[in-house]
Write a structure and sequence with these properties.
674 residues; alpha/beta; seven-stranded parallel beta sheet; four-stranded parallel beta sheet; 12% strand
C-alpha cells in the first residue's frame, strides 16, 4: 500500500517541488514507472508478487504501481475479497474492471462475515481521544496553510461549492488514499453541505460529533442497543442539524481536506477517519445495522471500558453492489455447505451446482468418536466441558492417536479458554508427558509471533521424522490460513463443536435480524456456522489429490443428523455408517487399518481418469495436441512441453479474438470438492 514514507516521495506536490528544488528526495522507482512503465505492457505470463519485485528492480519501475496499472489489461486477477467488497478499497483498485468480467469468490464459506466486517466499525474512548488530537492538529494545519498558501484552501472551497464532480476522481494514483465507506458515485453532482464546506467549519463540525460520542460513552451504565435512525435523530438534535446530509459527506470531506493540506502521514488520522466513517454509515443505512454501546468488556466487568459498535447485520448490503456491477459472479468453496443458506443471507437468486471430489482412492477417513474407551460419552458442550472424565477421555484419544499416526497431527479446540483449561488438566494428569513421548507438542497462542515460531518448529519436527502435534483453535488464524498438507497433517481431531460465543450482543442482534428479515432460525444458523468452521478445520489436511489423512470429530453431537448432514458432500460420501458412533479404541483400530492401506503406493495408471489426465484428455482439451499414432499410451504422457506451449499460444490467440467473453448470468454458487 501507499504508506506515509511512500507518499512523502511520490505525492504530486512533492514531485512538483522537486522541479524547483533538486535536493528534495523522490522515489526513483516511481519516476521510472511514470516515464516508461505507465505507457507499457508487461509480456504475457503469470506474475506473482516476487515476480513483480524482480521486474521492478530490473526495469527500475515501482512494482506496486505497475500492478495497479496492469489490472485493466490482465486476463486473470487474483486478490483479496476486500478489493471487491470493501467500499473503502474497491474504488481505488477494482473500479475499472469491466462489467462483463467473471468474478469468482473462492474459499467463500465465510463471505458473509467478510461483507459484514467491511461495513462495521467500533469506537472506544481511546479512539475518540485520538480523534480529538487529530482535530487539534488539523486546526493548526489550517491556520498554517492560511498564513503560507491561502489560495489552496480557497480553490478547494470553490470546488466543493460548485459540486463534487471531479473532486478526488482525477487524482494521481500516488495521491489517492482510502475511499468513501458509503460510495458517493450517485451523488457526485450534489453540492457539499454548506456547514462543512469551509475547512474551519468542518473541523468544528467533527469536534461536535466527537464530543457527542464521548458523552454517550460516558453516560452509558448498561448495555444500550438502538437503530441507526434513532441514533442519527439524537445526534442531529444535539448538533442542531436540519438534515443528516452533512453526516453522510463527512468521510469524503475529511479525505478532501487531508489532500488539500498536503498531509503525507494520513495513517495518523485513522481515529478521526473511523469517526467520519461512522457518520457516513449511520446516515446512509436505515436498516440492517444496530448501534450497540457496552460500558465494559464482559471479560473484565469491574473495569470501565466503554465501546460503541456500529454492527452491520445484513451481508447482502455489501454484496448488492457486487451483484449490480458484475454480470457473472461465482461463489465457490469446498466447504460451502449447506449451500441453500447462502442465497438467503446474501439475498440473490443463484444457479446452483455441486461437484464431487475426484479421487483415485479413498484418501480420507472421517470418523465420529462419541465415547471414550470406558464408554463414557464425549461431549464438550458448555455445561459439561469441565467434567474431568470427559477431559481425560479426550486426552486418551490424543495419546493413542499420536502413537499410531505418523508425522504431523493437528488438534482443534472450540476456544482459547477451553484449550487452556484442557491443557492445564492434561499437564497435571501426565497426559502431555505421554503425548511428548510419541511426538513433540506445539500450541497456538493469541500472539502472532509465538504462533509463527511454533508452526515453523512443528514443520521442522515433521521434516526430521520426529513427528509433532499442533494444538490450535477452530476460529483462530491457523484454522483459516495454514495448510497442513502432505506429512504435516496425517490426522486432524476436532474436540467439541466450534459454536460462536452466543452471549455476544452483536451476534444476538444479527440472529434476531436474520430471523425477521430472512426467516432463518437461530439454531439453524448457529449450527450452520459451527459446521462450516468444523469442515474448514477438517479440510486443512487435504490440500491436494495425493494427500491422505484421518478426520476425527470428537463429540457425540456430531452423530446427530442435523449436524452430520451439514458436512460437505465430499466428506459425507466417505463417512460410513460404521464410523458414525465409535469409541476411542474402535477409532484407533480403524485409523491403523486406514494408514496401512495408504502406505501402499498407487500406480500411475490407476490414477489416470480420476486425478490425472490421459493424453487423449489433453488432446481433447488442448486445442489440437496430438501424439504419434504408432506409440500407444502406456501410462506416461508423450506430450512435449513445446506442444503444450503451442496449445497455450493457440488458446491465447482465440482469447484475443473475443473468446474470453463472460457468459450471461445473474449469479452462481458452487460447492466444489476439488
Amino acid at each position: 500500500t501507499v504508506d506515509a514514507k511512500c507518499r512523502s516521495i511520490t505525492a504530486s506536490w512533492v514531485r512538483q517541488r522537486k522541479e524547483q528544488d533538486p535536493s528534495i528526495d523522490v522515489c526513483s522507482f516511481y519516476e521510472g514507472f511514470d516515464k516508461h512503465g505507465a505507457q507499457s505492457l508487461l509480456p504475457p505470463g503469470v506474475y506473482t508478487l516476487d515476480d513483480l519485485r524482480t521486474l521492478g528492480r530490473e526495469k527500475g519501475w515501482c512494482p506496486y504501481f505497475t500492478a495497479r496499472h496492469m489490472i485493466r489489461f490482465a486476463n486473470v486477477i487474483v486478490y483479496n475479497y476486500a478489493y471487491v467488497i470493501d467500499p473503502k478499497i474497491k474504488d481505488q483498485v477494482s473500479k475499472e474492471i469491466e462489467k462483463e468480467s467473471i468474478l469468482v469468490f473462492d474459499e467463500a464459506h465465510n463471505i458473509d462475515n467478510v461483507c459484514i466486517e467491511s461495513l462495521s466499525c467500533n469506537v472506544n474512548k481511546r479512539a475518540l481521544d485520538g480523534a480529538s488530537r487529530n482535530i487539534g492538529t488539523l486546526s493548526r494545519c489550517i491556520a498554517k496553510s492560511k498564513e503560507q498558501d491561502a489560495e489552496r484552501l480557497r480553490r478547494e472551497y470553490e470546488l466543493l461549492l460548485n459540486g463534487m464532480r471531479g473532486q478526488g476522481l482525477s487524482l494521481p494514483a500516488t495521491d489517492a488514499f482510502g475511499g468513501d465507506p458509503v460510495g458517493l458515485d450517485e451523488a457526485v453532482n450534489e453540492n457539499m453541505p454548506g456547514d462543512i464546506v469551509q475547512a474551519e467549519h468542518f473541523v468544528s463540525f467533527m469536534r461536535k460529533v466527537v464530543d457527542f460520542l464521548k458523552e454517550r460513552l460516558r453516560d452509558t451504565k448498561q448495555v444500550e442497543m438502538t437503530d441507526n435512525v434513532t441514533f442519527v435523530k439524537s445526534l442531529m438534535k444535539k448538533m442542531q442539524l436540519p438534515e443528516p446530509k452533512s453526516l453522510r459527506f463527512a468521510a469524503s470531506r475529511l479525505k478532501s481536506l487531508l489532500q488539500t493540506l498536503e498531509i503525507v502521514d494520513v495513517d495518523t488520522y485513522a481515529p478521526l477517519s473511523v469517526v467520519s466513517d461512522l457518520c457516513a454509515l449511520v446516515s446512509k443505512y436505515t436498516a440492517g445495522f444496530k448501534i450497540i454501546i457496552e460500558p465494559y468488556d464482559e471479560r473484565l466487568p469491574n473495569v470501565p471500558d466503554p465501546i460503541l459498535h456500529l454492527a452491520c447485520l445484513d451481508a447482502s448490503l455489501a454484496m448488492k453492489e457486487v451483484f449490480d456491477h458484475y454480470q457473472t459472479v461465482v461463489i465457490t468453496s469446498g466447504t460451502l455447505s449447506p449451500i441453500d443458506l447462502y442465497p438467503k443471507i446474501l439475498n440473490f437468486q443463484p444457479v446452483t451446482k455441486t461437484f464431487e471430489m475426484s479421487l483415485s482412492r479413498q484418501c480420507i477417513c472421517p470418523m465420529i468418536v462419541t465415547r471414550g474407551s470406558d464408554q463414557m460419552p464425549l461431549n464438550a458442550r458448555f455445561q459439561s466441558r469441565s467434567d474431568s472424565s470427559i477431559i481425560h477421555n479426550y486426552g486418551r484419544l490424543i495419546v493413542e492417536l499420536s502413537a499410531c499416526v505418523p508425522d504431523g497431527m493437528v488438534v482443534f479446540f472450540p476456544s482459547y479458554r477451553y484449550m487452556e483449561e484442557v491443557v492445564g488438566t492434561w499437564a497435571k494428569g501426565r497426559v502431555l508427558e505421554q503425548i511428548t513421548e510419541n511426538k513433540l507438542l506445539f500450541i497456538e497462542t493469541q500472539d502472532v509471533v509465538e504462533t509463527t515460531l511454533a508452526l515453523e518448529n512443528f514443520k521442522r519436527a515433521c521434516d526430521c521424522g520426529r513427528g509433532a502435534v499442533f494444538f490450535s483453535v477452530a476460529r483462530g488464524k491457523v484454522a483459516e490460513g495454514i495448510d497442513f498438507d502432505r506429512h504435516y497433517g496425517r490426522a486432524v481431531v476436532i474436540i467439541g463443536i466450534p459454536f460462536q460465543y452466543t452471549l455476544s450482543k452483536i451476534l444476538r442482534a444479527r440472529l434476531e435480524y436474520m430471523k425477521e428479515r430472512f426467516q432463518i432460525d437461530e439454531g439453524d444458523f448457529l449450527t450452520f456456522d459451527a459446521m462450516r468452521q468444523a469442515s474448514q478445520c477438517m479440510g486443512r489436511v487435504i490440500r491436494s489429490k495425493t494427500d491422505y489423512g484421518i478426520m476425527i470429530l470428537a463429540d457425540q453431537r456430531y452423530a446427530r443428523a442435523d449436524k452430520r448432514n451439514k458436512l460437505p458432500a465430499w466428506i459425507r460420501q466417505y463417512l460410513m455408517d460404521s464410523h458414525v458412533n465409535l469409541s476411542t479404541d474402535m477409532a484407533i483400530t480403524e485409523a491403523k487399518s486406514f494408514l496401512s492401506k495408504m502406505s501402499t503406493p498407487q500406480k500411475i495408471d490407476q490414477q489416470v481418469g480420476t486425478i490425472l489426465l490421459s493424453v487423449d484428455d489433453i488432446c481433447q482439451r488442448g486445442a489440437g495436441i496430438s501424439y504419434a499414432p504408432d506409440k500407444p499410451y502406456t501410462g506416461q504422457s508423450s506430450t512435449t512441453p513445446s506442444a503444450l506451449d503451442e496449445a497455450n499460444a493457440q488458446r491465447a490467440a482465440k482469447r484475443s479474438k473475443g473468446g474470453n467473453r463472460a457468459p450471461q448470468g445473474r449469479g452462481e454458487a458452487g460447492n466444489g470438492g476439488d
